[in-house]
Design goal:
Largest sheet: 6 strands, mixed
Radius of gyration: 17 Å
CATH superfamily: 2-enoyl-CoA Hydratase, Chain A, domain 1
CATH class: Alpha Beta
Number of domains: 1
Helix content: 40-55%
Structural class: alpha/beta
Length: 261
């Protein structure tokens, strides 16, 4: 039940827009075990919700999402059951977003990494603030770029730019993200949420079936890349069983450059 969500705040608007809010600003909206599970399932639940016409994904605080919580990363490395379950969720998170029949607008403010970034960039209309700081982050941690990256970055920005940013993890601000085609629109930070709500409201007032089928057919471009996506997720989670992620996590905690083998 949508009312049972604990790590996501669900705000229904009279217009038919349902806001899904990452609401753990004290931890920069990092995603723990429960949060990863809910971020996976919310899209199919809202797809089946008759009160929801459009979904708006946003975050409270100064960051969109700092990526996977340390507790989730450690659990994946140390507990095979958590490792396998999170692998399935990582796959289903992406597929549930793609198969959700309702338009999704995302609001990217501040740092956006990991599963949170996957949800934001797989939204139908991702909107970024100028000071947004987007980076995939996987190779910095010591695992292959999984989640959404291999699936959608080459399609949005081209193969050369996708390889550059996924291999180097050089951050991209909102202005550059729009220039590259990674997001649909960039907006001044103080106007970001207002503009996203305006667009979501416009979609909610539009022809629901026409919008739904347009989204569905456009997403065949993403479905065509499912084999590459499945391989990327498998290689990502294979990496969590090796030594590099332990060093990567230790380096992040100790705020130092990692020393990989």
């Amino acid at each position: 039940m949508i009312e049972d969500y604990q790590t996501l705040q669900i705000d229904r608007q009279p217009s038919g827009v349902t806001e899904v809010v990452l609401n753990n600003p004290e931890r920069l909206n990092s995603v723990d075990v429960a949060g990863h599970r809910e971020l996976t399932s919310i899209w199919s639940d809202l797809d089946a919700d008759p009160e929801t016409k459009v979904i708006l994904l946003r975050a409270e605080g100064r960051a969109f999402s700092a990526g996977g919580d340390f507790s989730l990363i450690e659990a994946m490395m140390n507990d095979s059951a958590v490792h396998r379950r999170t692998l399935r969720e990582a796959r289903d998170l992406v597929r549930n977003l793609i198969e959700c029949s309702k338009p999704i607008v995302s609001v990217i403010n501040g740092v956006a990494v990991g599963a949170g970034l996957a949800a934001a960039l797989l939204a139908d209309i991702p909107i970024a603030g100028r000071s947004a700081r987007i980076l995939d982050g996987h190779t910095t941690l010591g695992v292959a770029a999984g989640d959404h990256a291999v699936l959608i970055w080459p399609l949005l920005v081209g193969m050369a730019k996708a390889k550059y940013h996924l291999l180097t993890n050089e951050p991209i601000d909102g202005t550059e993200a729009e220039r590259l085609g990674l997001v649909a629109k960039v907006v001044d930070d103080d106007q970001l949420l207002e503009e996203a709500r305006r667009i979501a409201g416009r979609l909610a007032a539009g022809p629901a079936e026409a919008l739904s089928w347009t989204k569905h057919t456009l997403n065949h471009w993403l479905r065509a890349a499912y084999p590459a996506f499945d391989a990327s997720v498998a290689y990502e989670f294979l990496g969590f069983l090796g030594p590099d992620p332990r060093e990567g996590l230790a380096a992040v905690r100790e705020k130092r450059p990692p020393t990989f083998g």
